[in-house]
Amino acid sequence: MALNIGSDHTRFREIVRGKVRENLRKYITHGEMIGRRGRDPVSIPLPQLDVPHFRYGKNGTGGVGQGDGEPGQPLGPGEENGQGQAGDEPGAHILEVDVPLEELAGILAEELDLPRIEPKGTANIKEEKARYNSVRRVGPESLRHFRRSYMQALKRQIATDTYSFQRPRVVPIRDDMRYRSWQTVMEPVANAVVIYMMDVSGSMTDEQKAIVRTEAFWIDTWIKSQYEGVELRYIIHDAAAREVDENAFYHTRESGGTRISSAYKVAASLLKEQFPSSEWNIYCFQFSDGDNWGEDNRESMDLLKEELLPVANLFCYGQVVSPYGSGDFLATLKNTFGEDRDNLVLSEIPNRDAIYDSIKKFLGKGK
């Protein structure tokens, strides 16, 4: 009887998908999957998922119809003496399963009821572009592939014994000619840029940064599933701001005062110079404990109102609760803009358990 392996595999993937959905809040909270890049699959530990398997007996213990026995006697080997005391709990069944990030994004969307992003501009419009990635026998002389033509002529002359090692001359004929050729591919006219901004002053602890990193991973997973390509940029600040790489973003800790406006200035300059809003869909995610120099709040609000909100698809501010931060900046944002502005989303993240709801709030508008 032939085994329907395809349907068995499909059924297994359905079970895995159900288990991931069932435990998604736990995975988001604890961040087991952080650290993977690109389209790499993510290894997820799935508890209590039994996979059918063969269990083999020991060699040399006989078989069916061999040796002495009585009707009803078990065929398996007898019990052996063990060491230690018996337990009263079942053993743990843990299976590591690889789940593609695309599938993970789909599960995230289903579980958090996320709408698909509606990009502005031409981000999802694709145009035809020619890539010279093949060789043909015919074509214009301007696209003649000299090396391929030479090699073809050399192979022909050696095969027909017309090549002289004493007088090495390679004379191509028409049939030897090779020409560069192109393949038409569809490429997006524009993509998305995600700018992360984080306060790294002394009031932001390692735990707050871990919360930010976990939330950013899931935000990346969802946005990358909506666009062909995504550029990521990172800005850190205390009283001054600068653009850094991802590693520095998550591991830098400084002391001193806090000026959130400094981060807004770097972000606005970055967008003007490299990512004009006419060509890019712009997503800004800012994380802070809300502790800002009081006199800087007005400048921060002006920059947000005049420079960032007019060009951003979405600007999200997540306030992570710190034992050292004042938390006043969130209140300033609410008083200035309210909580119903179309492309501004505010979220308070007191602990890891709040990451799940914060992600849903940030991405739930489908911008």
Write the layout of secondary structure elements.
Blueprint: H1 5-22, H2 24-30, E1 42-47, E2 94-99, H3 101-112, E3 126-136, H4 146-159, E4 179-188, E5 192-199, H5 206-224, E6 230-237, E7 241-244, H6 246-251, H7 260-274, E8 281-288, H8 296-308, E9 314-320, H9 328-337, E10 344-349, H10 355-363
Parallel strand pairs: 5-6, 5-8, 8-9, 9-10
Antiparallel strand pairs: 1-2, 3-4, 6-7
Helix pairs in contact: 5-10, 7-8
Total helical segments: 10
How many beta strands in the DSSP annotation?
10
The overall pLDDT average reads 78
Largest sheet: 6 strands, mixed
* CA radius of gyration: 31 Å
H and E string: HHEEHEHEEHEEHHEHEHEH
CATH architecture of the domain at 192-363: 3-Layer(aba) Sandwich
Distance between the termini: 52 Å
Percent helix, as a range, is 25-40%
Decide which structural class fits the backbone: alpha/beta
Please describe what this structure looks like.
Among the domains are: 127-186, no CATH class; 192-363, von Willebrand factor, type A domain (Rossmann fold, 3-Layer(aba) Sandwich), CATH 3.40.50.410. Helices cover 34% and strands 20% of the residues. It has helices spanning 5-22, 24-30, 101-112, 146-159, 206-224, 246-251, 260-274, 296-308, 328-337, 355-363; strands at residues 42-47, 94-99, 126-136, 179-188, 192-199, 230-237, 241-244, 281-288, 314-320, 344-349. The strands form three sheets. It has a six-stranded mixed β-sheet with strand order 7-6-5-8-9-10, sandwiched between helices. The chain has a two-stranded antiparallel ribbon with strand order 1-2. Strands 3-4 form a two-stranded antiparallel ribbon. Helix 5 (206-224) packs across helix 10 (355-363) and helix 7 runs parallel beside helix 8 (296-308).
